[in-house]
């Protein structure tokens, strides 16, 4: 296990974004659990929404007096090959989970559980990679309370994968999901819904003129191959089949029929715990190799993601399954109109026609139609973008996430 770096954040840095009642609520909830010690465990310190939330969340927790640590699992590549299959299985795939794969998983979680030396009042295990640690930890620390925070879409999981985790789920004190229906297939009596959130102070989300000197170069659109004077469609996501990048390409081609100078950019990271990403990247690259107006940009600095989102005329999130999609909140926060699919956590953020558009996940024609509307109507795009930013300010910023976790810890203590 490795200690993860946390952001240099204080609660006071966010107070200008909050109304008085919200500020008081957050401080009161943190004070109520200031006697507790908390551990968060996940697999990576960068490259995904979980890590991006944990950095500021842990920092703010400590700033408000809730002693909180964050550690990372350490495991061989074979473990992450297995957990990618597990991730897909819990989202509905039926690839077999062989005995060898199960043994690889169980060995890695046992080693990592044994590496936890300190005792905590509450341990939060994030996603399937860490869930298998719970039995080992509960045996060693019987007074602790264990929370499994699942960030993925569990609407239609493969039964074999639920059975694989049955004992682990029975050992946790609380499951946390992003929407109520995700908990329906789980063999648990009670689940808590907590919506994810973005950090508005990071280089990925702050105004470009507030970037540090170190980050400023990454936030210069001139460093990227897109033409800022031409219409730009953008999808920010992992190169993952659930994000349907080839469907995005199909929608872009339909838009191009009426907006011939439109461009398409994919911005995606290659996280250490996602071995499938490179394969999907190659497929998209091969499909678009003859089109100079399609750009595949990987592992941009956070400031680069920021400037690409602010440069885009329309941001897409064409997921087939989606736990939440923090990339939607990021784009809305920047006042960009978003066309997202009506799956998972996306409709929690987008009200169709009010602060963005929702389409069915495989409806290429509707996706292209909404993109065209926004490209051809600047006033519409501006109105939806303004409403989107206010939605995020009220509901999807990190201080609210801290308040929700503090309330949860008070319940399970």
UniProtKB/TrEMBL annotation:
Residues 226-390 form the Glycosyl transferase family domain. Keywords: Carbohydrate metabolism, Glucose metabolism, Glycosyltransferase, Transferase. GO terms for biological process: glucose metabolic process. InterPro entries: Glyco_trans_1 (IPR001296), Trehalose_Metab_GTase (IPR052078), TreT_GT1 (IPR049438). SUPFAM superfamilies: UDP-Glycosyltransferase/glycogen phosphorylase. One of its GO terms (molecular function) is glycosyltransferase activity. It comes from the Archaea. Its EC number is 2.4.-.-. Pfam families: Glycos_transf_1, TreT_GT1. The keyword Transcription regulation does not apply. Residues 40-183 form the Trehalose synthase N-terminal domain. Belongs to the glycosyltransferase group 1 family. Glycosyltransferase 4 subfamily. Homodimer. This is Glycosyltransferase.
